[in-house]
Specification:
Blueprint lengths: L4 E2 L1 H4 L8 E5 L9 H8 L6 E2 L26 H10 L7 E5 L7 H10 L5 E4 L2 H7 L25 E2 L2 H10 L3 E4 L3 H5 L16 E2 L15 H12 L5 E4 L6 H10 L6 E2 L3 H5 L13
Parallel strand pairs: 1-5, 2-3, 2-4, 4-5, 6-10, 7-8, 7-9, 9-10
Helix pairs in contact: 4-9
Length: 285
């Protein structure tokens, strides 16, 4: 069972296995059609496609009309139905990939753990690593599968809501870690959310710093040393980003490093900054 990362050479023999499901998570925040277009142009054999905006995210506003962020989590029941439509069972090995160092695939990895499914991994290095290994892409439709039978079990991960984060800003006790680029963290060059800056007291760990130059994850010992500086005790850490997507990359890196237990704030900066009453920090950490 693979629970964090899988290499291309280890995945290749299983692309046609009935008890493996491979999911293409490619996406582009600036061009919402880019992921599906890339999938159509060529994907891993038998891979399915996951739409970040409509399948891996839920309604942007709650029943009272409050903004929940740009990529709030979907309802668990809806996510379970999606997984069943993919043919996922309790014992299925799921592998998520993208072409961005796991930037988007880590979201699906975390979501499977959110519903208690442990057998999920991210293809280390994604499409570039697959092609570098001399392995082919395909434009064929994936093989049909019988509906899956997966059910929600006890979650393997935890979340916190905006009120918990606000309480932490006021009273302390937990370290918030922001996965966005350093300039956005400082409040500079903000082009996605209407307000620039960060949650007061947060530290910055840019998710791309988890990767080597070739787009694969750094070695566990190196990740442990680097992440320990920003995160401290992972069981007291809250991971966030712009909208709850790349924070999952830091959560995956923590798991690879042997530092489990950090919580995700799904609404992240997009939800936090939507209310002018919430405090904003700017500048370096």
């Amino acid at each position: 069972m693979y629970t964090t990362l899988i290499e291309a050479a280890a995945l290749a023999p299983h692309v046609n296995d009935a008890d493996w499901v491979i999911v293409d998570c490619r996406h582009d925040l600036a061009n919402l059609a880019a992921g599906r277009e890339a999938y159509a142009a060529g994907h891993l054999p038998n891979a399915l496609f996951a739409d970040m905006e409509h399948e891996l995210s839920g309604e942007k506003r709650d029943a009272n009309g409050a903004f929940r962020g740009r990529h709030p989590l979907p309802e668990k029941d809806a996510f379970i139905e999606l997984l069943r439509s993919w043919g996922v069972n309790e014992n299925t090995q799921v592998v998520a990939y993208d072409a961005h160092g796991g930037m988007y695939a880590a979201r699906l990895w975390w979501m499977l753990r959110w519903i208690g499914h442990e057998a999920v991994a991210v293809l280390d290095g994604g499409v570039p690593a697959w092609q570098a290994a001399g392995l082919p892409l395909s434009t064929d439709a994936p093989s049909s599968r019988a509906p899956g039978t997966i059910t929600a079990r006890a979650p393997l991960v935890t979340t916190v809501d905006v009120n918990t984060v606000l309480h932490n800003v006021e009273h302390g006790g937990r370290q918030v870690v922001d996965a966005r680029a350093p300039d956005r963290f400082r409040g500079e060059n903000e082009t996605i959310d209407p307000v620039g800056g960060h949650i007061p007291g947060a530290k910055n760990r840019f998710f791309k710093d988890n990767l080597q130059a070739d787009g694969r994850f750094k070695a566990p010992d190196r990740l442990k040393a680097e992440l320990g500086v920003a995160v401290g005790d992972p069981k007291k850490a809250i991971m966030q980003c712009g909208s709850g997507v790349t924070a999952c990359h830091n959560l995956l890196a923590l798991e690879v490093a042997g530092l489990p237990g950090a919580a995700l704030y799904p609404g992240s900066w997009s939800e936090w900054s939507a209310d002018a009453a919430r405090p904003v920090g700017t500048g370096a950490q």
